[in-house]
Amino acid sequence: MIIVLKPHATEADAQAILARIEAKNLKPLYMPGVERIVLGAIGDERVLAELNIEADPIVEEVKPILSKYKLVARELHPHDTQVPLGNTQIGGERFVVIAGPCSVESREQLMAVSKMVKANGAVAIRGGAYKPRTSPYAFQGLGVEGLKLLKEVNQELGIPTVSEVISPEDAEMMAGYVDMLQIGARNMYNYRLLEAVGKTGKPVMLKRGLSATIEEFLLAAEYILAQGNPNVVLCERGIRTFETATRNTLDLNAVALLKQKTHLPVVVDPSHGTGIRELVIPLSRAAAAVGADGIIVESHMNPKEALSDGHQALTQDLFEQLMRELKPFVAAAGRTL
Amino acid sequence: MIIVLKPHATEADAQAILARIEAKNLKPLYMPGVERIVLGAIGDERVLAELNIEADPIVEEVKPILSKYKLVARELHPHDTQVPLGNTQIGGERFVVIAGPCSVESREQLMAVSKMVKANGAVAIRGGAYKPRTSPYAFQGLGVEGLKLLKEVNQELGIPTVSEVISPEDAEMMAGYVDMLQIGARNMYNYRLLEAVGKTGKPVMLKRGLSATIEEFLLAAEYILAQGNPNVVLCERGIRTFETATRNTLDLNAVALLKQKTHLPVVVDPSHGTGIRELVIPLSRAAAAVGADGIIVESHMNPKEALSDGHQALTQDLFEQLMRELKPFVAAAGRTL
Amino acid sequence: MIIVLKPHATEADAQAILARIEAKNLKPLYMPGVERIVLGAIGDERVLAELNIEADPIVEEVKPILSKYKLVARELHPHDTQVPLGNTQIGGERFVVIAGPCSVESREQLMAVSKMVKANGAVAIRGGAYKPRTSPYAFQGLGVEGLKLLKEVNQELGIPTVSEVISPEDAEMMAGYVDMLQIGARNMYNYRLLEAVGKTGKPVMLKRGLSATIEEFLLAAEYILAQGNPNVVLCERGIRTFETATRNTLDLNAVALLKQKTHLPVVVDPSHGTGIRELVIPLSRAAAAVGADGIIVESHMNPKEALSDGHQALTQDLFEQLMRELKPFVAAAGRTL
Amino acid sequence: MIIVLKPHATEADAQAILARIEAKNLKPLYMPGVERIVLGAIGDERVLAELNIEADPIVEEVKPILSKYKLVARELHPHDTQVPLGNTQIGGERFVVIAGPCSVESREQLMAVSKMVKANGAVAIRGGAYKPRTSPYAFQGLGVEGLKLLKEVNQELGIPTVSEVISPEDAEMMAGYVDMLQIGARNMYNYRLLEAVGKTGKPVMLKRGLSATIEEFLLAAEYILAQGNPNVVLCERGIRTFETATRNTLDLNAVALLKQKTHLPVVVDPSHGTGIRELVIPLSRAAAAVGADGIIVESHMNPKEALSDGHQALTQDLFEQLMRELKPFVAAAGRTL
């Protein structure tokens, strides 16, 4: 149920109504806008009806929520959400480039690539400390040691960091080390994990599952917002199809459709989306053109020695070329880099 | 590394070698066979080499493990594993039928359907207490209340139960209520959860992910076995394809292939695999024919009122027909029902 | 439009109505049943209405056709169709096994494998003379020379033959050499070819396209029936999915669903459906159990030297094993082999 | 076999060698370059060896062809091919926009939309006269009548036309009416049709099959080039995946990869690739950014009354917006519109 208050309604008016909603064990939502305060109430429709909120003189209109994903839909929230990341935002005028290694491997490795991508215009560093690997015998990441290195990079270079969380019990702890928590594609349906990152209030990058429909993807985001955390960035990273010439099939249709259906920012991961270093630049250009709010790419000073995903990491030369080639397309999209 | 001991080797000989393996922080495996004791050592190949185990006079042969999934492959373990479930086993002569509701909804609902399916030959009851639902607003299961009802059914009817675990922190607790822990399709890549159920030592039913390859599926099982838990049953439950006439595409190719590649039992879930009540019986017959060790089906006394997945649940009439129709195919496969 | 005539209606009554339908350039259908004569009229609904057929005293009822595929749906034709193939039928009590090489390579090769599979119970010989190959440089089949060899086998061994047609202009000519025309998976959407085989009146085996939905498959059959040829057998041969461990994913869901939706016989091709010789037997058993009317398998006396698809062809030993293993499952399905 | 001639070799030298190749029933290829004449010989490797071409003093080097697709690979032909279309080319500096209705419906409909898209910068008109429809009862196109209308548009407006051919026997005839023959997605594996359009020598637009791999797509083009017709444009038009929110999944990975693997031009069809009018513009921008040589879009003056695919056709307003929005992205790609 969406409750639009009259123009002169105050925050106190809103709180009174929210208290009534909460007293019935329904989920209250407070959405102050520039012109009006809008409230939401989510839960059993019959209980909602008992509240008889339409009768309140401060209420202008009460309407049902049609989308299955009530909090992430543009229906309730037509303006683009901007998610903070360090001193910048994702979803605003700037087309953000987040870069870094697949895995944090050592202080030297992380610092070198972070300096390089920052010097070339990256706004944040990505790097995995906990790696969900297909084989239990593969390198699983440096764990807390990796998080400490990310914190060091953040403090030394003054650049925010993004890293993947793979267990609900780690969410709070990781929020102390990094600026944005990433949910990987394999955990998109891990609803307990979504709830855990929702509770931290920390910005979250949610990657689309390997074969998740767009509706499932939006509902996964809804799990996070339903915990009171509005700072979610969606990431299209390729879906699994019959095609084997590329690692995944980057679904740019989905990006265009998501931008219409939700107010959340959408970024693209062309590294996993193609799995081939030589395809990262053209697909990054396409991401800017299709309307994405940024990209997240893997980069490594020496990809041949990377402990994971070396074949898709950009070398320094290619990263520099990426930023050069992106520029006119970002400008064509009316944004800055 | 696979270490085959000489015929006269004792358990004490084996333990001595295992201690050396463990001292190097490698994973030791003890696999006593009818004729020989076989040991395994999993970890960094260079460290393994330092052990110079070939030189031990009690060792007959040392060979590398070729499969990526070392513990689940038939390579190391040619005989079929039988996983205990109450008084019966999965993977033996008996073709097992596990049945019950999608969700545990109430004592009456669960008890009624449990009695019915038990009377018709089901060897275990399935029922969800924690439901991983696409929408955060959908019925999420009764939680501990549901587990208590499953325990009651177990004690009153003397039949084992299977229920899904969705969070690592719940694994130990749930092991106290049910006889087999299920990992759902959405959590097949949730490696922390796999490790958690591995640590409980409890029998596990591992469902194939929506778009998991057979190799990824076997490696997910490997995560559980690598924690020292050999009691894993694989469950094919349909994959996601372009076809929309059925909910999923049941992949019986995978069942035949899995039976060749692994010693673990394989069961089939035709309820989720088709999503259509009328297709459950023919696909159950096909599961028996293709070589599966059993099926797990959804059943409900009144599917129209089910809180989840009612359209694919078998009524009493259909469940009785299922058991009747299965009989000759199970016999043709040289097994009993 | 379905037109049910009154019980006492004669064939002459029916012909009078059919003439009126034809005079309006609509497609008339004559479907005499045991109890009633049923007629059909397919075409522009407004023109149909002008005929005012309800007013005819010999007409009991006029109703619209709801299925998109009007001629292949069970709606209009509840009883199973039996398609003649030499002295036998597909779709009757007998579970048919059609076998032979992927390609006709030589007289010796074809004769040897034909004798072997016939001796073991195959009811028809398959063999490609025109091969639609992915590469223009691959062996394209012997052409008319291959057809002549199939005719020789037919005459010498008294067994019917099936062979693929790949061009509309060949349909009539091929109908003179073989007993059943096959439309391959790659040509399922080749509507001109479907119309051409429809016009020959010859029995047709229509294979499902690589990524054809069940509805598209049934509509492809409808193209053939709409030319007046009711003798169509549907063949499920595996669909293209993300899984690469098998060549295709055999979709037995589709077989069960097709048997409910259409009166046409359905056979299964486990050779292409799996692409792995060792999986052909278990999937053939499953095909019998799921309700298929038969299988079509590739067999070769010396698969290592086959000019195409050798890895999935059954050797003599495996073919004999197939027939032995099939027997109890075919019996369990209430049919004969 | 690739045969590189010495710098001073003349065309007569080349013809002498080609004659020797042809005399052995091998396929000779003549590929004069700016610096060198390169010849090709395709066929049985043993016969090729017998020719002993290395020994010819005019031959500098003989090397094997590694690609499966010998004529379409960049390996043999590093420079971009430009395919003529009326007075323009596809594959050159200009980013081409081809537009028009799904089906030619009437003179008025075709002329109106053709004038509109031409006035806005389209370089060619698309329009189907023969429509391969899923249902035999759907509108199948105007046939020759439609071709005549396309010819009229061509003569009256001086703009080239593209139309789909669905039967080998129509290829020659259609070549007399239109400027480019289109092979639709459903006929990509229809090798006889590919050969037929190859023989006409007319420019061909080859659409990727619904679930065709990139290798299969290139080999389909190879079928056309192998008939001596070098004028092939590849068209990515979306593949079939599990996603149902869009009609198909436009695979821009494929476009970037194709541009690396082949010298043939590649265009994108965002109308079929998305199936949603509102997504056509963002995906067209992305097509320009990823490196495509143009787009082909459906447009209709009154989409609600279109006989086919109305939901994805651009109205005049949207077509004008498309051309406006494309401009900066085409410029960013270093091309002209």
User: Fraction of residues of chain A in helices?
Assistant: 25-40%
Number of domains of chain A: 2
Low-pLDDT runs of chain A:
none
User: SS-based structural class of chain A?
Assistant: alpha/beta
- What is the CATH third-level topology name of the largest domain in chain A? TIM Barrel
Number of helices of chain A: 11
What would CATH call the class of the largest domain in chain A? Alpha Beta
Quaternary form: homotetramer
Q: What's the CATH H-level homologous superfamily of the largest domain in chain A?
A: Aldolase class I
Give the strand line-up of the largest sheet of chain A. Answer: 7-8-9-10-11-12-13-14
Head-to-tail CA distance between termini of chain A: 39 Å
Outline of chain A:
elongated
Q: Which chains have the largest interface? A: A-D, 42 and 42 residues
The overall average pLDDT of chain A, rounded, is: 94
Radius of gyration of chain A: 21 Å
**What's the SSE pattern of chain A?**
EHEEHEEEEHEHEHEHEHEHEHHEH
* Proportion of residues in β-strands of chain A: 15-25%
Main beta sheet of chain A: strand number and arrangement? 8 strands, parallel, barrel
GO biological process, one term (chains A, B, C, D): aromatic amino acid family biosynthetic process
GO molecular function (chains A, B, C, D): aldehyde-lyase activity; transferase activity
Pfam family, one (chains A, B, C, D): DAHP_snth_FXD
Protein name (chains A, B, C, D): 3-deoxy-D-arabinoheptulosonate-7-phosphate synthase
